[in-house]
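Practice record 12: protein with NAP.
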Amino acid sequence: MSAGEERPELRGTQLFDLTGRVAIMTGAGRGLGRTMALALAAAGADLALASRTAPEIESLAAEVEQLGRRAVAVPTDVTSPEACEALVAATVERLGRVDILVNNAGMNVRKPVLEFTPEEFDQVLAVNLKGYFNGAQAAGRRFVAQGSGKVINVSSILGSVALANQAAYASSKGAIDQLTKVLALEWASAGVQVNSLGPTYFETELTRPLYEDPERKAFIEDRTPMGRWGQPHELAGAVIFLASDASDFVTGQILLVDGGWTAW
Ligand SMILES: NC(=O)c1ccc[n+]([C@@H]2O[C@H](COP(=O)([O-])OP(=O)(O)OC[C@H]3O[C@@H](n4cnc5c(N)ncnc54)[C@H](OP(=O)(O)O)[C@@H]3O)[C@@H](O)[C@H]2O)c1
């Protein structure tokens, strides 16, 4: 018996070891999802990678395999409940189990409220909110049945604070944080932890219109106590923590990785 088994406080960094765990990452093809998938693989997890663009998740699967982990690419549109059920089923069939779901696939339409079409508002909510519900419901059936599981809902600082021109996106992220809390309560006694991970601004395709505009880029830097944008690898520690035994008594929380933005 190891010291860690006798005395859990002596497990040290082994608390963060994901060896033998299987994680699903939605929106894995690029941006934050791609980096977080690699971070989970580097911590030992096998990965099911989901998005609509097959070549992107296939190339990531090859990269994960180079790290010595197993990976499957499962083309998925998260707005479809049936597709999310099929994603979880494919994960179990091809990787043997599922332990972690990272709901990450997201989109944005930035414009003033008075310029939104009903279709644009619906589309943002369909991907960002309903997509997370679909993923959580599909994976949650397994997690509750097996008595363990981790759901990580990638939210945003805009779930907690507001900015102009973000009506649909901020509404979706605020709703995700509430969904996190409801799921955490419903599944707490089943041994399933559900948390939100809320990034500030990171350079990805999603935020290209902002960082390529000097005025908007500077606004974000000025508004951030640490004075800069985040780098995708700076989410690695938070996602590994929320996916691992290190967070076993943490549920229903919003972990903001924001360079101090929300501390104002
Ligand atoms: N970047 C930031 O500064 C920032 C800040 C706070 C929060 N976030 C959140 O972090 C998450 C990732 O953002 P990101 O910046 O990495 O975005 P991104 O670079 O635009 O990547 C978005 C990913 O989501 C996938 N996706 C979009 N719609 C989908 C759908 N219907 N079904 C399945 N996959 C879909 C995309 O792939 P396909 O188009 O191929 O499907 C892509 O892989 C989002 O939830 C976003 O709101 C980002």
